[in-house]
Amino acid sequence: MNKKYVITIARGYGSGGRTIGKMLSKDLGIPYYDRELLRLASDDSGINEQLFAKADEKLKKSLLFRIAKKAYKGELIPPDSDDFVSNDNLFNYQAKIIKELANTESCIIIGRCADYVLKDYDNVIKLFVHAPLEDCINTLHDMTGNPKKEIEKQIASIDKHRAEYYKYYTGRDWDDVKNYDLCLNSSQLGFEKCVEIVKSYLDIRFR
Questions:
Q1: DSSP letter, residue 83
Q2: What is the pLDDT of residue 1?
């Protein structure tokens, strides 16, 4: 397959979306980007990487109180502006990196509203990975050993933040199937079959 392609993965917490992304990366022999995007955006903008890491946390605390949506439109705020290191501009730089990656190589991108950022690209496969709550709780319990009640609260909190973050920057609902090409129930399928389905879809789509 000569055509460059990008696989974006949005996922519910505990559903294994990150694991599926890493498995796809290994099978397909293409790079996988998650938190690496923060470093690349930092290098590109000259803004300290720690500010990118903190932006998610600040947004998490302020989102509920912000009525206006800041749907991403692609503009970068110049360095001489007071808003150069604002949360919105940090997102803009991450989006810039996502577009540059899509233009130069085949890769897998986790989260960061990448499906929306690349909505006008025809070489993108947009995935949403989900699983029933009980299965997500059990998966995380096996990984961490933390109490199930605590994990349930953590899942609710993280998925709520992901939905609000997505809504803020895209104006769309995070779990709306219309945003994605494939919605995979990792509990029913298992990780291996999810990977096989994506590879088959990739072959059919770009054959």
A1: T
A2: 55
Looking at the domain assignment, is residue 192 inside a domain?
A: yes
Q: Which domain range does residue 172 map to? A: 6-206
Residues of the chain falling short of pLDDT 70: 1-2, 45, 48, 52-87
Spatial separation of the C-alpha atoms in residues 64 and 50, rounded to whole Å: 23
Based on the structure, what is the number of domains in the chain? 1
The H-assigned helical ranges of the chain are 17-28, 36-45, 49-62, 87-104, 114-117, 133-144, 148-170, 186-189, 191-206
What was the pLDDT predicted at 99? Answer: 92
Residue 74: give its domain's CATH number: 3.40.50.300
pLDDT at 169: 87
> What tokens does 3 get?
């055509």
Residue 1 in any domain: the answer is no
